[in-house]
């Protein structure tokens, strides 16, 4: 079984929930969740998280929405343990059937030629946020939530850049590739956990705009500009596709599914 029945009580964690795809995931999940479900929203900006929370409560005031301002680039295992302990200790967790985490937080890193990516400190900081911390949080999530939720679901927001090389996106793409393989191994090792790598397609976000603005290559800037002017998706479009995938279960655990697959 890979389908998710959002009509049942769930505990849901969303990283990078303060804006963009993460905020939209939180909102669209809230529209479908069983009343009294628990939403735990993680991001650095407490003000933006509160905005997300207020938008969710406009959708459904019965949801338990917990915000945690945390720098995901420097948090440690004990920080994640405290966050989940506080959340599960402050609400009624009886009757939870699904524990779901959306690993959405991420950055583009330096958008340069590979031969100009010479600062090892920047590489380490980038991988701290975009790979190492993801692995650490996921491990804590599994350990802490497995005892209270019979079915765990892990959704990794990945990118075509992790499977296809794009100029100037070596830092971004290499971390996405590593992260995607990490979750494929998780699916192999943990057969009772539903794992999905979801590639959202080109989406109109601050991250997409940063590539247009900051890419070292004018060719890259122009190609992304053309996409923005023609085929770019909204957050609502791509998250709607993600929600439909989860509800229908049209994938095998560990699969990577792109927005455009089987449309």
Q: From the helix content, strand content and strand pairing, which structural class follows?
A: alpha/beta
Strand segment count: 7
Q: How are the strands of the largest sheet arranged?
A: 3-2-1-4-5-6-7
Note the quaternary state here: single chain
Count, helices: 8
Q: Could you say which overall geometry the principal axes of the C-alpha atoms support? A: globular
Using the CA coordinates, give the radius of gyration: 18 Å
Assess the beta-strand content as a share of residues: 15-25%
Description:
The two termini are 22 Å apart. The mean pLDDT is 95. With 263 residues, this protein is of the alpha/beta class. Helix 1 runs parallel beside helix 2, helix 1 packs across helix 8 and helix 4 runs parallel beside helix 5. A seven-stranded parallel β-sheet has the order 3-2-1-4-5-6-7, sandwiched between helices.
Q: What's a concise summary of this model?
A:
By secondary structure, the protein is α/β, with parallel strands linked by helices. It has helices at residues 20-32, 46-59, 77-90, 120-145, 170-189, 206-214, 218-230, 235-248; strands at residues 10-15, 38-43, 64-69, 98-103, 151-157, 193-199, 256-258. Strands 3-2-1-4-5-6-7 form a 7-stranded parallel beta sheet, sandwiched between helices.
């Amino acid at each position: 079984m890979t389908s998710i029945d959002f009509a049942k009580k769930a505990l849901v964690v969303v990283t990078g929930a303060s804006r963009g795809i993460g905020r939209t995931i939180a909102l669209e999940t809230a529209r479908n969740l069983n009343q009294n479900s628990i939403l735990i929203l993680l991001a650095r900006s407490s003000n933006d998280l509160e905005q997300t929370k207020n938008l969710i409560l406009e959708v459904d005031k019965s949801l338990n929405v917990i915000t945690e301002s945390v720098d995901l680039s420097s948090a440690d295992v004990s920080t994640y343990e405290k966050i989940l302990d506080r959340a599960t200790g402050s609400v009624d967790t009886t009757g939870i059937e699904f524990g779901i985490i959306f690993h959405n937080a991420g950055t583009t890193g330096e958008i340069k030629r590979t031969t100009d990516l010479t600062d090892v400190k920047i590489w380490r900081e980038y991988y701290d946020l975009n790979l190492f911390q993801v692995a650490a949080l996921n491990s804590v999530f599994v350990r802490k939530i497995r005892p209270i939720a019979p079915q765990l679901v892990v959704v990794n927001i990945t990118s075509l850049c992790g499977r296809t090389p794009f100029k100037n996106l070596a830092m971004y793409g290499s971390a996405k590739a590593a992260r995607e393989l990490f979750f494929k191994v998780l699916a192999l090792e943990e057969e009772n956990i539903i794992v999905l790598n979801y590639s959202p397609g080109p989406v109109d976000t601050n991250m997409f705009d940063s590539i247009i603005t900051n890419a070292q290559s004018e060719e890259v800037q122009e190609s992304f500009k053309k996409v923005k002017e023609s085929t770019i998706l909204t957050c609502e479009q791509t998250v709607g596709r993600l929600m439909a995938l989860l509800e229908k279960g049209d994938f095998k655990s560990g699969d990577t599914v792109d927005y455009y697959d089987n449309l």
